[in-house]
Amino acid sequence: MENISTTITAQPSLQVEQKTNAATNKKSLIASAVGNLLEWFDWTIYAVASVYIAAALFDKSDPTSALLNTLAVFAVGFVSRPLGGFIFGPLANKFGRKNIMLTTMVLMALSSMMIAFIPSFSSIGYWASFLLLIARLIQGFAHGGETATSFAYIAEIAPNHRRGLWASSSYVANGTGTLLATLSFVALNIFFTSEEVYEWAWRIPFFAGGLLAFVALYLRRNMVESHVESDVSEDDVNWTMGQFLSRGFKLFLYEAGSTITFYTWVVCVSIYAITYKGMDPKSAFLMSCLAQIIYIICLPFQGLLSDYIGRKKTILITYFGCAVSIFPLWNMISEEPWTLFVAQTIGLILIGFLMSCKAAAMSEQIPTKYRTKMLGVFMSLAIAIFGGTASYINTWLYSNNQGWLFGIYLILICIISFIVVIRWKDNTGVPLDQIK
Question: Which of 163, 421, 430, 418 is nearest to 300 (CA)?
């Protein structure tokens, strides 16, 4: 009787504890997502503001050269991402995901503030370009650590059967941050004259992003910790260097397709519409915002879909869809704003099948012991090589009347990524501590 009584009284206590943990994890998810949102806002406003930065911080006697130099600095930010991932990945294992996410948030805020206050090219010459380069390197360093750590963190605190849905919060935050970055320049073009935006108003979003990042720090201070190396025993998972590199190379090829399609439909398309199709910037930014709103709304549903049919199938939809649609959709775009809206909406919905469950899909391929290390290095390398250069390559090819080569480039990468994913094991719903 005593044992029965003890079991009966313990059961409600266990249920209360489980509900408490679930509630705490949800709060942590929200705090992580808000931080991701602001981090992506800070990261993306550079790309959205590229035409204004080119005029303010580079020699504008040759506008095309200034824009290409601006996009080159954009790409350089990606170069420091693998370094950030390489350093912060192991540290996230040793000191915990939460502490690293707090650190990267501070670095991101400071670098955005730095860009906001860099004097113009007309004031200090090439020092303006140099200081921009330093700020972008710091941003990339922070972003590499943040992305890898937050991907692992969200997957680790999520319920196994809803990991795709919870993972979608990462790109809902990403998409919302990107949307707000785009929307900020819609607002600037509404409230200021074109001359004022080019002269000084473009700095406002950078200042606001840096300031708001400290709000995310406040929210993140009470997040639960998902993994600290010293707290668990993982002697049963010990890869050789060959296993580590082999699995990492597969993730690298997967991420190559993911990042090239993402930056094509989030960043490159609006620059293309404005620069080479003569679309009014105000209208182009507005159409891009509307397309991104639809994309963000779809993400949770696409993440939930991956919980039911598996990550593998939804990822393959993205690679196949983007490969077959890149030429028809880009050829659709003209100087008419509605053409950008339709093309970008379709492109973003296609990439949403992959992006919605990306944090879950990648985490399900790596044991906990190696998760942040591998994401930090191999994901960041792929993003640096294929994402960081996407805008530059796209702009350069179109400026030389060879834009069709960019479409071929994207198709080939999607085919390679498709082959990689079709051959990997679908671990949808598998407890992460069972991944080997």
Answer: 163
